[in-house]
Amino acid sequence: MTTLLQLNTSLFSTGGQSSQLANAFVADWKDANPDSNVVVRDLATNPVPHLTGERFQAFLTKPEDRTEAQNREAAVSDELVAQLQAADVLVIGLPLYNYGVPSTLKAYFDHVARAGITFRYTATGPEGLLKGKKAYLFATRGGVHAGFPRDTQTGHVRDFLAFLGITDVEFIYAEGLAMGDAVAKPALEKATLAAHRLASRVAETRLAA
């Protein structure tokens, strides 16, 4: 059974434009894969705590050596890691906030980057341990940034996923959403159509495999 993990990271929860694009894709995915397992985590309604020194130390401590408090601290990360390990497909609704990722997504990233579990250090550098997964990202922006040096978000997310071993990554952008209806409406329509087409292409690829 294929498992899809969807992360909605908009501060507006399901009302966010990035969440709506991700939802459009996932709805088509479920129609094409009725036996698949879809897990949704909304980081607005179910946020991940920001990393602290105490929590990070709990990650580093061997399970058998942890205190009760450290077990509680590590349990959040363990749950998130298990979800990500079990997923074959990762879908992220990704708004751009102040030229970066939402802080809730950064907190999520900090909790799933676990040495020896989701990546490991080798003599030639780090190696991701979550290989063989596919990621689809639905990125929404108030301005127009894709393809310009100021779009540091795309590189950051792509590099982080590669750090974990997820290198098969595809972005769909909806930009200019704060530039008036004349720009925003067609941009959203184009991105929504792209999401539907992407789901159809993925379904066709799976059938041909």
UniProtKB/TrEMBL annotation:
Quaternary data: Homodimer.
Signal peptide limits: none
Superkingdom classification of source: Bacteria
InterPro entries xrefs: Flavodoxin_fold (IPR003680), Flavoprotein-like_sf (IPR029039), FMN-dep_NADH:Q_OxRdtase_AzoR1 (IPR050104), NADH:quinone_OxRdtase_FMN_depd (IPR023048)
Gene3D superfamilies noted in UniProt: 3.40.50.360
Organism from which the protein derives: Usitatibacter rugosus
Residue ranges of every copy of the Flavodoxin-like fold domain listed in the record: 4-195
UniProt-recorded Gene Ontology molecular function terms: electron transfer activity; FMN binding; oxidoreductase activity, acting on NAD(P)H as acceptor; oxidoreductase activity, acting on NAD(P)H, quinone or similar compound as acceptor
Family membership: Belongs to the azoreductase type 1 family.
Role summary: Quinone reductase that provides resistance to thiol-specific stress caused by electrophilic quinones. Also exhibits azoreductase activity. Catalyzes the reductive cleavage of the azo bond in aromatic azo compounds to the corresponding amines.
Name the UniProt record assigns to this protein: FMN dependent NADH:quinone oxidoreductase
Catalytic activity entry: N,N-dimethyl-1,4-phenylenediamine + anthranilate + 2 NAD(+) = 2-(4-dimethylaminophenyl)diazenylbenzoate + 2 NADH + 2 H(+); 2 a quinone + NADH + H(+) = 2 a 1,4-benzosemiquinone + NAD(+)
Alphabetical list of HAMAP family matching this protein: Azoreductase_type1
Positions bound to FMN: S10, T140, R141, G142, G143
EC number in record: 1.6.5.-, 1.7.1.17
Keyword annotations of the record: Flavoprotein, FMN, NAD, Oxidoreductase
Pfam family of the protein (one): Flavodoxin_2
Gene, per the UniProt record: azoR
Cofactor: how bound: Binds 1 FMN per subunit.
Enzyme class: oxidoreductase
Required co-factors: FMN
